[in-house]
């Protein structure tokens, strides 16, 4: 295979917090990558981060702009909190740098559209950090839908969450996260089903958000409760193009073990995916396929894949897929045009919740 670059790709890491660890751990294993630079707004954080990984020659900067001005980079990992995703990604693309951007894509639909405009102008690869897609069990969901066994899909129920599992750090304030459970784990549930059914365009959303747990010291550490100002629960009824409706709910905390399994209903069959948080690619148990066979209503269990197929794990695979797309001049493994629809649904849930009524989703011209 002829590679676009016949040398190591020079990578920069923007934001050296928690998720940057998995990026660096994976990139360190790759022979065709050099981790050249890193940036973090918190003084000394990037330096300490790379030292921990034994990467002492990495040049460190106090923000992404100065890093990209002073370094010749081929690619960056945008590992910042949600509210700086758009700025960092657009700045990198404008400098002609390939980008792997962590999930959620950003905070608003408008930011997502601005990112895609910059991507189109740049001609560079932009992919999104949705690693669950690379899990064999998750891939199976799409394979089942694509096989036609379910017929025409008309109803999807998805979401999930935790009885108690409110994160902390930069996830719980509007100034850094922008959105709460919706952006943290909601985007994964949406991606799981929308990717399976071919990412139909979202049309309207009736959404609800609440935060009865995060700010309450009965359920959250008092210090975190005092600064908590994002959603910890969201629900929505979404109409998608092609006469499909999507019933969605997500929670960081609730008084029940799960708000339900994921189900995909079609005219020829239905699929049940036991409740999952998705982020690590896990499904909550064997999936079940329901069909009529020779006039009998039957249930079939889909055996779980055991994970040996992918010894490096989904986090490694997501970075590898990004690099392979750069080196082959190929398509982004998780394309932004798809995740625009994911972000638009999240944005519409927030808008609808604020207005207390259904809202339409309009897309601006990003050609
Ligand atoms: N794919 C996954 O499984 C996964 C898991 C966890 C987090 N995430 C996502 O990764 C992102 C970061 O999460 P985290 O837990 O690492 O957060 P974090 O708060 O630990 O780290 C983010 C870092 O980015 C830095 N930063 C912000 N803006 C910057 C800028 N302009 N230039 C340089 N540095 C900047 C902050 O100072 C902070 O140190 C979030 O969007 C989150 O949703 C993804």
From TrEMBL:
Q: Domain (GFO/IDH/MocA-like oxidoreductase): give its ranges.
A: 140-272
- Which molecular-function annotation in GO is an example for this chain? oxidoreductase activity
Which residue numbers delimit the Gfo/Idh/MocA-like oxidoreductase N-terminal domain?
A: 9-130
Q: Does the keyword Signal apply?
A: no
- Write the record's keywords in alphabetical order, separated by commas: Oxidoreductase
List, alphabetically, the InterPro entries matched. Answer: Gfo/Idh/MocA-like_OxRdtase_N (IPR000683), Gfo/Idh/MocA_oxidrdct_glycsds (IPR050463), GFO_IDH_MocA-like_dom (IPR055170), NAD(P)-bd_dom_sf (IPR036291)
Please state what the protein is called: Oxidoreductase
